[in-house]
Design a protein that fits this description.
globular; single chain; 6-stranded mixed β-sheet; 273 residues; 26% helix; 18% strand; alpha/beta
Amino acid sequence: MEQQPQTFVAPQPVQPLQPQATGQPDPTPVTTKPVRIAAVGDIHVRETDKGKWVDFFKAASEQAEILLLCGDLTDHGYTKEAEVLAEEMRACTIPVVCVLGNHDHDKDEHEAIRTCLIRDNVHFLDGDAVVVKNVGFAGVKGFGGGFDKYMLSMFGEVSNKAFVQEAVDEALKLEAGLSRLDTEYPGVKKIAVLHYAPIKATVEGEPEAIHPFLGCSRLAEPLDRQNVLACFHGHAHVGTLEGETPKGVKVYNVAKPILQKAGFAMPFFLFDV
């Protein structure tokens, strides 16, 4: 028997009471229908994938109102792979919010990949922010560097400092995007979209020796400071689905292999905002 998609429903705040014509408070709270998000990372589309993803995008469009693609959209970072994906995405009828991953950067064609895929309902984030259906999204690719007390510090050789600086820069871009949402859309619910992991919990299951290359705790700091509702990432194919930051922000590793292993009927995670 096919397993139904698993859905996490975020707690909905109680809305202010609306006055009746008599001036007395209406005892029935006004509720707003939640916005359903589908999220997946690491789809790794290849040139030979023509026709493979149509059903996926149709299903996401039927079951959700927004689709998040959390990096590694292509398998080897070729523009030709992105061209296949662009054609498959014609079946997607809902807005898409994306970040690129390390695979998308591998052949230094990431800008061409972005150009190939972007259109009116496809939003790429790289320190940017966008509001879709009254939900705010900010995102970056992210970078490695390790977690907690084992996080790399800015010390030693120039090459090591450059590695650490990359993670710092990505965290600063994420902070800027989240701050922009507060400035331009005060009170909007905020979702962070990454490729690399911001916490150790969602890479657990991967060999410990490669944890520093799967993410960095520096990415978690903006999530906690900016009151983010939830964060989605990929990259760690053998990691763990769910964890949280030190201040309790929910983090979901939605790498496609993890969702498939968990028995999702379609490889996307559903989340209600």
